[in-house]
Amino acid sequence: AQSVTQPDIHITVSEGASLELRCNYSYGATPYLFWYVQSPGQGLQLLLKYFSGDTLVQGIKGFEAEFKRSQSSFNLRKPSVHWSDAAEYFCAVGEFGTSYGKLTFGQGTILTVHP
Amino acid sequence: GAVVSQHPSRVICKSGTSVKIECRSLDFQATTMFWYRQFPKQSLMLMATSNEGSKATYEQGVEKDKFLINHASLTLSTLTVTSAHPEDSSFYICSAKGTGYGNTIYFGEGSWLTVV
Q1: B60: which residues sit within 8 A by CB, 6+ positions away?
Q2: CA distances (Å), B100 to each of A31, A46, A106, B31, in order?
């Protein structure tokens, strides 16, 4: 069974600092990977996704993520964090094939941004 | 872009009653929708896969008679929580995908259910 681990439950950074949120996955075949952001009480917004091809994926709001097969990782990065980035971030892995669309989520990482 | 809408966004119901939550794809046809549940400060857990025109597929441990899912059209799936109890209070969120692989999976805004 597939699984996703986000090792950091809570991260605090200063505004303008760089950010890296970690994500490790376990999956028997080539996964497809997502990062979503959730503001309190809200739904999920897709930041970026990886299906195949270039392992460095660009997303919205200045986020990027790099797929590293050898490390089973898909870490999310942003060079300069804005106060509005404070939210909870979820990494998710999905399957190809008939179960496409069915996602397994990590535990989430809460990002706090200090002014 | 494609949008998935859920209704209601918040609902309070009395213990023992049933409540229905709708998930609509607004500008695309969704052959498959997914229902997730999120307890406070926890991650999202898949409850079931809803396929248009057929029975839903439930994840292990999810009571299909308690969480009734109907996907009667290509743009609408409903989740009915029957005989709700306070422990059913949670955030329910749906997602939808269109036909073909490679399509983005869109999530609804979620629905807060409080059972009193």
Answers
A1: none
A2: 17, 19, 26, 10
pLDDT class of B99 with cuts at 50, 70, 90: low
- Cβ atoms A104, A91 nearer than 8 A: no
Residues in chain B with CB shorter than 8 Å from the CB of A3 are none
Tell which residue, A45, A47, A25, has the closest CA to residue A94: A25
B-chain residues near A37 (CB < 8 A):
none
For residues B76 and B56, the answer to whether their CB atoms sit within 8 Å is no
Residue ranges, chain A, pLDDT below 70: 98
> Cα B114 from chain centroid?
15
Count the alpha carbons within 13 Å of A51 in the hemisphere toward its beta carbon: 9
CA B66/CA B76 separation, integer angstroms: 19
Phi-psi bin for A72: left (phi > 0), alpha (psi -120 to 50), beta? left
User: What residues are paired with B81 via a beta bridge?
Assistant: B19, B67
| Measured distance CA(B3)–CA(A95) in Å, rounded | 22
Name the residue with tokens 């497809």: A32
pLDDT for the residue numbered B104: 76
User: Which residue in chain B is spatially nearest to A110 when comparing CA positions?
Assistant: B41
- What is the least distance, in Å, from the CA of A80 to any CA of chain B? 26
